[in-house]
Amino acid sequence: MKKILNIIVIILFIGSLHSCSDAYNIVQEGELRESNAINTLSDMQDYLNGVYSTLGTEDEIAYSAIFTDECGTGLGSGGQNFDTHRFQINQGNAFAESIWYGQYQTINRCNRLIKSANLIKPDASTPEGASDLIIWNDMMSQTRAIRALAYFELLSYYSPDITNDSAPGVILYTNVPQISDDLPRSTTGEVAALIESDITFAADNIDTSVRILASDPIRYYISPNMLNAFRARFYLYRGNYTLAQQYAQEAINSNGALENPNPIPTSNPFVLTGVNSGTLNLAFWNSVGGLTTSNPYKKMWYDINFSESIFSLSRPVQNGWTDMGGYFNTNKSDATGSPFFEVGRKLFNLLRTAPTGQFDVRLFAVVDASSKVDKNYATNINYMNTDVLIIDKYPGKGGTAVLRNDIKVFRTSEMYLILAECYARTNNYNGAANSTAAMLKKLRDKRFALGNAAVSQPLPNYTSMTDALADILLERRKELCFEGHRLMDLKRLGPITNSSIDRDPTDDIIPGQPITLPITDYRFTLPIPFSELNANANCGQNPGY
User: Fold this and answer.
1) Which H helix or E strand runs over 203?
2) Smallest Cα–Cα separation from 92: which of 529, 413, 520?
3) Residue 15's pLDDT is what?
4) CA–CA separation, 76 vs 336, rounded Å?
5) According to a count of CB atoms within 10 Å of the terminal CB, is the N or C end of the chain lower?
């Protein structure tokens, strides 16, 4: 038996010796391989469809929510991801590994497609070749934009400072490495340069008019406006506020619609009375936030209305796609769904805060009507059972695929918030136009309602850039919660605004657990996974781990 156990241990140990080469040397049964599958433009398109299918940010969304202050532990939890929620982050963290290998799998497939596509590049010297070259360039544009997005996700989570060109970045490769390659980490500046090069190529060569998209909407594919939004976020994170402002404005000019907070019923306009009393007016709440809602903002989260979507990852009802809501709820986004995690209490308090008689429509998108609200939660020792705030931002697609929704990677509202930040960074924070105040007012005007009508909100007035950035951080916390932004928002804006993770003590099932970290803490950057370090001697670890 001892001998058998030793053999098992050896096998398991060998199995753990994998690096990102496992992501770039994957061979699955039935997989299209460039050596035998990409010989025509049609083959390229088939392979590109597969590349799209590997692109995902679900793990990033879940990690950002659970690690920061968007979540509290849930009534139905069995301890899933408690280590992450309690800041016990090390090189064996499950999210650190899944984000790393997930994005490298996408990069690997992009590189394979680029390599073989170069072997069948059309000759533009003939009319037919020139026409085919436009199609080829468009597919290459999509591929390189997807690769850029994957590298951007990696930099965001694994670079200690995405604004510092000299900071350690991630492993950079544009070819198809051999399994024996142990590649070192490139600098953040080197990875950012590739991202910028890929986006520029995509923007210069993209041509959606030559695509055959069948019935699939353009929001599921790389498009000119997706590239505007991508550039806006990329340059914002990198600290280039001039370019971030330019591309955010272009994205708004192309897709500037912000959804209204109405129509809603007028039977109980002062809905916060119900919230504060400890019971919810279910009929009213369901009429705004339920499946039969006529409210256009809530419809976005049922995947019924798409007006604010610039780029989304398609998650259809059919086949085995990841259910984003399954990171937070066992089987449904209501009280019967055994929540692993619930809405953080301070986030809930922010969403329910509104001028007298008004309400914030985002409350109905984030919190399910079946939630229990205990006005005495702070002193009730049984708060886990009496204060149950169900996360409902991923309720399912129109009531059919429960917990499965498209992943909204870029939305219009984020572009307004990027503009607001760019104005603040250049000291244009006050004024009725072209200012931080003007951008936040435009967004808030579309989020607050009184009775059955949207309500114009006051124009803010700030005393300093820091004051303005703090208000932007607040608005991003409410508008973009559970969409994967909070971690990077704190990392970028926390040191300036003296902000960090802001939890309520009741956000853990056991009182007395840590509720924040110093904003300078090394754990705001993910560790390089143990499996990568164990197999790749040239890949260094991030500071602190």
Assistant:
1) helix 188-205
2) 529
3) 39
4) 10
5) N
Nearest by Cα to 50 from 135, 146, 134, 118: 146
What would the pLDDT profile of 259-270 be if each residue is shown by its tens digit? 989 877 655 444
* pLDDT the model gives residue 20: 54
Among 96, 11, 46, 92, CA closest to 526: 96
Q: Does residue 398 carry a pLDDT above 80?
A: no
For the cut 90, the answer to whether the pLDDT of residue 377 exceeds it is yes
Phi, psi (degrees; rounded to nearest 5) at 316: -70, 165
The secondary element (H helix, E strand) that includes residue 407 is: strand 407-411
Longest Cα–Cα distance of the chain, Å, equals: 78
Which residue is listed with tokens 């490495």?
177
Neighbours of 39 (CB within 10 A): 12
Burial per residue of 424-445, b for 16 or more beta-carbon CB atoms within 10 angstroms, e otherwise: bbeebbbeeeebbbbbbbbbbe
> Would you call the peptide bond into 339 cis, given omega within 30 degrees of 0 as the criterion?
no
Q: What tens digit of pLDDT does each residue of 352-370 get? A: 888 887 889 999 899 998 8
| Integer Rg of the chain from CA | 24
Q: Which two tokens stand for residue 148?
A: 């850029």
pLDDT at residue 279 is higher than 70: no
3-state secondary structure 43-103: HHHHHHHHHHHHCCCHHHHHHHHHHCCCEEECCCCCCCCHHHHCCCCCCCCHHHHHHHHHH
pTM of the full structure: 0.92
Bridge partners of residue 391, in order along the sequence: 367
For residue 2, the tally of other CB atoms under 10 A from its CB is: 6
What 8-state DSSP symbol labels residue 432? Answer: S
Closest CA relative to residue 325, chosen from 544, 71, 140: 71
Contact (CB, 8 A) for 340 and 74:
yes
Tell me whether strands 341-343 and 358-360 are parallel, antiparallel or unpaired: unpaired
Query: What is the phi/psi pair of residue 115, to 5°?
Result: -60, -50
Strand partners, 72: 342
> What are the DSSP calls for 257-323, one per residue?
----S----SS---THHHHHHTS--HHHHHHHHSTT---HHHHHHTTS--TTEEEEE---SSS----
Alpha-helix residue ranges (DSSP H) falling in 353-479: 362-366, 383-386, 412-425, 436-445, 465-479
What tokens appear for 240 in the block? 């280039």
What does each C-alpha distance from 85 to 100, 326, 529 come to in angstroms? 19, 16, 18
Question: What is the phi/psi pair of residue 168, to 5°?
Answer: -60, 135
Gap between the Cα atoms of 286 and 521, Å rounded: 41
Tell me the helix, strand and coil percentages in the chain, rounded to 5: 50, 10, 45
Cα 237 to Cα 159: distance, rounded to the nearest angstrom: 12
Q: How far apart are CA 392 and CA 475, in angstroms?
A: 19
